[in-house]
Amino acid sequence: MTILVEDPRDEDYPALVSLVFEAYGGKNEYINAVFPKNTTETGLENAVLRCVFTTKMSKAVKWHKVTDGTTGEIIGGAMWSIYTDAKPPNSELDGPPGTWENEDEKEYAQALFRGCKEYERKYWDENDLPLVSMSS
Fold first, then answer.
1. Which of 29, 48, 80, 112 is least enclosed by beta carbons within 10 angstroms?
2. Which of 131, 118, 53, 119 is nearest to 87 (CA)?
3. Is the separation of the CB atoms in 48 and 17 below 8 Å?
4. Which of 24, 110, 9 is nearest to 55 (CA)?
């Protein structure tokens, strides 16, 4: 099988983000808290909106899709954060209205996000550029 690694088109994001969630089978508690209902149509739509928004707002964020060179089917992908000019600012987790069922769920997801970013932030603060991070 020939595989191609390419930049995704806007219309590729639903399939691309869905594959990332499918890889975890709904069993990753961090992903489930940060991207609630990610195995449902509504949860996936919200996640796609957030991923596209983040990609368009940050020149450091870059997605790649992996496609079957014969069929054109998207079979994988990854999101890269590549910082060459400046270190990333501290940011708080957020999402479009309705992402979380209630404020407690949102606060829990934000606490998990901060906890995971704590060690990453320490590493970034103690090291020089360039810095690269990958999510898949």
1. 29
2. 131
3. yes
4. 9
Q: Specify the residue for token string 């595989």.
A: 3
pTM of the model: 0.79
Instruction: Quote the distance between the C-alpha of residue 116 and its chain's center.
Output: 14
Q: Which residues of 6-44 are buried (b: 16+ CB within 10 A; e: fewer)?
A: eebeeebbbbbbbbbbeeeeeeeeebbbbbbbbeeeebb
Distance of alpha carbon 79 from alpha carbon 135, whole angstroms = 5
Angular region, 126: left φ>0, alpha ψ -120 to 50, beta rest: alpha
Structure tokens at 2: 């020939």
9-54 pLDDT per residue, tens: 999 999 999 998 898 888 988 889 989 998 899 999 999 999 999 8
Integer-rounded Cα Rg, in Å, for the chain is: 16
**Which pLDDT tens digit goes with each residue over 106-135?**
999 999 889 888 888 888 889 888 888 887
The position carrying tokens 């060459």 is: 84
